[in-house]
Design a protein that fits this description.
The complex is a heterodimer. By secondary structure, chain A is α+β, with helices and mostly antiparallel strands. Chain A is built from five helices and five strands; from the N terminus they run E-E-H-E-E-E-H-H-H-H. A five-stranded mixed β-sheet of chain A has the order 2-1-5-3-4, covered by helices on one side. In chain A, strand 1 and strand 2 (about 10-15) form a beta hairpin. In chain A, helix 2 (about 90-95) crosses helix 5 (about 150-170), helix 3 (about 105-125) crosses helix 4 and helix 3 (about 105-125) packs parallel to helix 5. The longest helix of chain A is centred in the last third of the chain and has 22 residues, at about 150-170. In chain B, helix 10 (about 445-455) runs parallel beside helix 11 and helix 20 (about 840-860) packs across helix 22. The longest helix of chain B has 29 residues, at about 670-700. Chain B has a nine-stranded mixed β-sheet with strand order 1-2-13-12-11-14-3-7-5. In chain B, strands 19, 20, 21, 27, 28, 31 and 32 form a seven-stranded mixed β-sheet that branches. A six-stranded mixed β-sheet of chain B has the order 9-17-16-15-10-37, sandwiched between helices. The model of chain B is unreliable at about 1-15, about 35-40 and about 150-180 (pLDDT under 50). Chain B is an alpha+beta fold. Chain B is built from 23 helices and 37 strands. The chains are: A alpha+beta, B alpha+beta. The interface between A and B is large, with 53 and 66 residues. Bound molecules: FE2/S2 (inorganic) cluster (FES) (2 copies). One FE2/S2 (inorganic) cluster binds next to loops of chain A.
Chain lengths: ~170, ~950
């Protein structure tokens, strides 16, 4: 028996005896993808967030506490795969231009949490009035020690508003 | 593609320094991950003087390899590292009341067994208790040296002379550390009582990650099963030992003569030591006998706090036997000290490894806040090399271990009195600050010393008696951490001020305004304040802000049976820098017409690299394309020797162009705004004078052109009547004609910047530098440019303690749930004087981070001492609650109805002399007292024990 999934589009097959291995360790050790960060290792800080797609649903997952066993048949995206070549994603650009981060260790987690949120909003736009709540749900549990969150919040909100405007504009 | 570290190109700069050890000379070098800021440098911020993003931002936002934890030996093949990597783990002391007798690993299955088990008794003599070079502050350092040589001994008779730093003479790390009886083993030797909880008891080395992981999983939280201890012998009778020196500031002046009387600043060392005790009695007598004084006694306490930088400490080490070289990879705030300490450790006679070189690959730290400043982690990593049989070794703490052994902010108890005249004039402050230094000596005496200075707050205090010390205990070691004694001292003073106001029915803002210091006043040690502060103006701004002026209305709006609302105000006058700071910087013109800046500073996330990259823009027509931080070897190339015994103006040693007082100091974030920027900008001016202007003169055929005849526009150098010159054209000429391509400058600041004349290729100029060297374009070694006509500081400045200040006023509006005891910060107003703002986004980001951290240690972050705390190895973020999104107001503009934190930055004035100030701790330090003051306003209870948890709130309300 093997567990099969993709990471950033590349197929992975791992033996069953690795079922209990946390995804974070697999990313670091087997794939040398160290953009996803370890901070608490127990599912509190969300520095290790990746995007996991199963069927039509994409979820932000904490890789430090997700064993490979539950990932069979999923597609996993990490921070290394958010930009298209040199082209940063909208949220990466927003974090960069808004000086949202300082040491940057929490940044990959915020990038992935916000990316999943923005994709969800793009897929089913929400009312502007619901946005603060949605942002809090998406990244409110992420820990950043350097910044006080203000510039992260501003960047996510501005980017999400653009997404909402694009989508609602397109619908009209 | 995963970015890889590549070897550091030499760029004509020597990357090495030399350390004289008992076993011979060791070459030390620091290599940066240079291509990280270089990768997208050309377009990172194209407008001169303006940062549109962080220079390191793109790598961070794309998950590039940048932190020490991201690397394994296999990533370092280009540096010659092997791909075989071992893994290290330390066992940790569980008690200080029983002797450690050894380890018992029989419970480990075969596939989790370490390859080697190293006990304290296996270490070579130099490894057992290697010294840390902690020299940081001239005043404290001199006190340490004085205590070594004894009270009657002149400096020249001292057994260990003042440490020298220079090309041939490096600071001897043994000079300033380890008062007798304070030498603690890195690994406890069997048979001995551990000196503190979490002290290592054994080093385990594994040759596979699988074995290491399995062992860790089995042993985590089960330490007791694997270590043997003898019977209980009770607490260590020698504790609490004092981490010398202690600080005692006594001042006695009459209000009619505020600059006179007795003070630390106004006395010479011998007189001060003789008279301070008598003067303290005089202060007490005055307070006891003067009628009508209003005396408020206070006692506060503060728990230790974990810096909780997000990246737990991690590093790699590999001993290359062929080259006798130790290769180290670390993310540290103090690469200079760390690499020297590692060199010293292996430089002892009898060292089993023959070490001739130590090279440190310095990574970006994943946060720091002081917790990576002289962290013992570097020595724990270094130790592994001796037992790894030539394999690379990785030591990586997880969060449990980081909580268990990582440096903490000192717990502190303060008590004292604030004494005020009926006309609201402060008469005196007396205070005792007792810092828990924890297990291993770190920067505790320095922290205590600055805490004593901060005890005077932002006020004129004619009489004072302030004593501060740090004691050894069994707790986790205390480090420098953001605020450096300020958080503890300002909390005591600002809550006392507020309490007197509340008890007397005085307006707390007016009361403060009557007493604030301003330029021309003196500090609590009697030292002059020669910087513009503008505290009165700042209080006025705070007072006119609706958060304060409409506080009664806000209270009425928020209050209900269950919820109370309160407003609190506090201010701080955080000193930054030390009592004498040396900084060094290089600015180079590259062949393609781009610039590179090099600095000894470290960017811990505060944005130093970004700031230093843009502050040359107005001087040199373009921002730096690359900024290399942690330039540990820069000072060694400038041709100066640092000698701490060098004096002030009448001291002829300043006439010797080869001497300075201090090479480089700490890599503190607070040094960027003023000190590091100054060194970079002065060096940029020197590059203009020595390289750009001579090239322009030749290209334009204008041999008499002066600096004032030129200007920059859109990256082009202009002068009237001539075709403008682009930087690539200038660079082509410079390299073609063999002009100097770069300049290296060193500055020393002690109240003023030592300044001197230097002869450059375009004439003689006075720079606020005490050392200058040039780099030829052929890649040759730096050539010193001797200074002359040197102007140094006045003699008295050596006893001023500090000379640079960052004032801040904070107003907090909060609600308290009377049922649950929960406090919510509704609004924060910070009024900050940061001088010149180089990058506004970085300043406000630092401020927001400071506010969040202060909310954390004021209300949430609760860590008991002893084995009930993180020393038990079971602490993580599920128990230690740092602020999250919902704990901080997220709107940056005050607007009733939303939770906001508004930052008002004082406009720049000519008094700022175009200089910035260090700021993160400035904002942070007065948030905690403002919270306590707001709680007093909300519920009428004074809370003086931090953190103010819901349990304490309820206790205050109902018991
Ligand atoms: S590291 Fe995964 S949640 Fe903290
Ligand atoms: S930027 Fe440092 S932890 Fe968030």
């Amino acid at each position: 028996m093997t567990i099969s999934f993709t990471v950033n589009g590349a197929s992975q097959r791992v033996a069953d005896d690795m079922a209990a291995e946390p995804l974070l360790d697999y990313l670091h050790e087997a794939l040398d993808l160290t953009g996803t960060k370890l901070c608490c290792g127990i599912g509190v800080c969300r520095a290790c967030t990746v995007a996991v797609t199963k069927g039509a649903t994409t979820t932000a997952m904490i890789s430090c506490s997700t064993p490979l066993s539950v990932l069979d048949g999923t597609d996993i995206r990490t921070v290394e795969h958010v930009a298209q070549g040199e082209q940063l994603s909208a949220i990466q650009t927003a974090f960069l231009e808004n000086f949202s981060f300082q040491c940057g260790y929490c940044t990959p987690g915020f990038v992935m949490g916000a990316t999943v949120l923005l994709e969800q909003i793009a897929a089913s736009p929400i009312e502007e009035a619901q946005l603060d709540r949605a942002i809090a749900d998406a990244i409110g549990e992420h820990i950043c020690r350097c910044t006080g969150y203000v510039r992260y919040f501003e960047a996510v909100k501005a980017t999400a508003l653009k997404v909402i405007a694009d989508k609602t504009g397109a619908r009209q | 593609m995963i970015p890889q570290a590549t070897p550091n190109p030499q760029h004509g700069l020597s990357r090495r320094r030399f350390l004289q050890t008992a076993a011979g000379v060791i070459t030390l070098s620091v290599t940066g991950l240079r291509e990280i800021p270089r990768a997208h440098a050309q377009r990172w911020s194209p407008t001169p003087g303006v940062a549109t993003q962080r220079i390191d931002g793109r790598t961070k936002v794309t998950g590039g390899k940048i932190f020490a934890r991201d690397f394994n030996a296999r990533n370092l093949a280009v540096h010659g590292w092997p791909d075989t990597q071992w893994y290290a783990m330390y066992l940790r002391a569980l008690t200080t009341t029983r002797a450690f007798e050894g380890v018992d690993l029989t419970l480990l299955p075969a596939d989790a067994e370490p390859l080697k088990v190293i006990l304290g008794s296996d270490l070579a003599a130099g490894q057992q208790n290697p010294p840390l070079s902690l020299n940081r502050d001239n005043i404290v350092d001199e006190a340490i040296m004085r205590s070594r040589r004894g009270p009657g001994q002149a400096p020249s008779q001292a057994p260990s002379q003042a440490p020298n730093q220079g090309p041939g003479k490096q600071a001897d790390p043994t000079d300033l550390d380890h008062p007798a009886g304070m030498e603690f083993d890195l690994i406890v030797r069997p048979g001995n009582r551990p000196d503190f909880l979490g002290q290592a008891t054994a080093l385990l080395l594994f040759d596979t990650r699988a074995a290491w992981r399995k062992a860790r999983a089995l042993m985590q939280f089960e330490d007791a099963k694997y270590q043997n201890y003898g019977p209980d012998i009770g607490p260590n009778p020698d504790d609490p030992k004092i981490f010398e020196p202690q600080t005692h500031y006594v001042r006695y002046t009459d209000s009619s003569d505020p600059g006179g009387g007795f003070s630390y600043y106004g006395s010479n060392d011998a007189d001060y030591r003789k008279e301070s005790a008598e003067q303290a009695i005089r202060v007490a007598n005055y307070l006891n006998t003067t009628p009508d004084l209003i005396k408020h006694d206070f006692a506060c306490d503060m728990r230790a706090m974990d810096p909780m930088f997000m990246e737990p400490e991690s590093g790699l080490i590999w001993y290359d036997k062929t080259l006798s070289k130790l290769n180290v990879l670390l993310g540290t705030q103090s690469p200079d000290g760390d690499v020297a300490d590692i060199g010293s450790m292996y430089g002892e006679q009898g060292s089993r490894l023959k070490v001739e070189h130590v090279d440190l690959i310095s990574c970006f730290p994943g946060g720091g806040f002081g917790g990576r400043d002289r962290s013992p982690f570097s020595l724990m990593l270094a130790l592994c090399a001796d037992f790894a049989d030539g394999n690379a070794v990785k030591l990586e703490y997880d969060r449990f271990e980081q909580f268990r052994v990582g440096l903490k902010r000192h717990a502190c108890e303060t008590h004292g009195s604030l004494v005020v005249a009926p006309d609201q004039t402060i008469e005196a402050i007396t205070m005792v600050l007792s810092f828990d230094g924890g297990g291993r000596k770190n920067l505790s005496p320095y922290v205590a010393s600055l805490g004593a200075l901060c005890a005077g707050g932002a006020y004129r205090v004619p009489k004072s008696d302030i004593f501060a010390n740090a004691k050894h205990s069994e707790n986790v070691s205390g480090g420098s951490q953001r605020g450096f004694g300020g958080p503890q001292a300002f909390f005591a003073t600002e809550t006392a001020i507020d309490e007197i106001a509340a008890q007397q029915g005085w307006d707390p803002l007016t009361f403060r305004a009557r007493n604030v210091v301003s330029k021309g006043d003196t500090t609590v040690v009697g030292g002059p304040i020669s910087q513009e502060l503008r505290l009165t103006e700042m209080l006025e701004i705070a007072g006119n802000h609706p958060l304060w002026s409409e506080r009664a209305k806000l209270k009425a709006q928020h209050e209900s049976d269950r919820v109370a609302y309160g407003t609190g105000l506090a201010m701080s006058l955080q000193a930054y820098g030390t009592s004498g700071d040396g900084v060094v910087a290089a600015v180079m013109l590259n062949k393609d017409g781009t610039y590179e800046v090099q600095s000894d500073a470290i960017d811990m996330g505060n944005g130093s690299a970004t700031t230093l990259g843009v502050v040359i823009g107005d001087i040199l027509g373009a921002n730096a394309s690359t900024v290399e931080m942690g330039g540990y070897t820069l000072f060694g190339q400038i041709g100066l020797t640092a000698n701490r015994s060098i004096g002030c103006v009448p001291d002829a040693t300043w006439d010797d162009p080869k001497l300075t007082k201090k090479g480089v100091g700490s890599s503190s974030a607070c040094l960027t705004g003023l000190h590091q920027v100054h060194a970079v900008q002065q060096t940029a001016h020197a590059l203009f004078a020595n390289t750009i202007l001579p090239a322009a003169r030749a290209l334009w055929g204008e041999p008499d052109l002066v600096v004032q005849d030129t200007s920059w526009s859109n990256g082009l150098l202009m002068t009237e009547g001539k075709e403008s010159l682009s930087l690539p054209v200038i660079a082509e000429f410079v390299y073609g004609q063999g002009l100097d391509k770069g300049v290296l400058g060193h500055g020393y600041c002690q109240e003023i910047w030592v300044n001197a004349m230097f002869n450059t290729q375009s004439g003689s100029y006075r720079f606020e530098l005490d050392g200058l060297a040039t780099f030829p374009s052929d890649g040759g070694a730096a050539k010193a440019v001797p200074r002359y006509a040197t102007q140094a500081m006045d003699c008295s400045s050596g006893r001023a303690s500090r000379y640079a200040w960052a004032p801040c006023v904070n107003v907090i509006g909060l609600t308290v749930d009377r049922i649950t005891g929960e406090v919510q910060i509704e609004d924060v107003l910070s009024v900050l004087n940061a001088g010149r703002i180089h990058v506004e986004q970085l300043v406000s980001g630092q401020s927001q981070g400071g506010v969040a951290m202060a909310i954390g240690y004021s209300l949430l972050e609760d860590m008991p001492p002893g084995i009930a705390g993180p020393a038990d190895g079971r602490w993580n973020l599920n128990r230690y609650h740092v602020p999250r999104f919902h704990d901080v107001p997220l709107s940056s503009k005050y607007q009733p109805g939303t939770r906001s934190q508004e930052l008002v930055i004082m406009n720049e004035t000519p008094g700022d002399k175009k200089q910035g100030r260090g700021i993160a701790e400035a904002v942070m330090c007065s948030v905690a007292p403002a919270i306590s003051n707001a709680l007093r306003d909300a519920v009428g209870v004074r809370y003086l024990s931090l953190p103010i948890t819901p349990a304490k709130i309820l206790k205050g309300l109902y018991q």
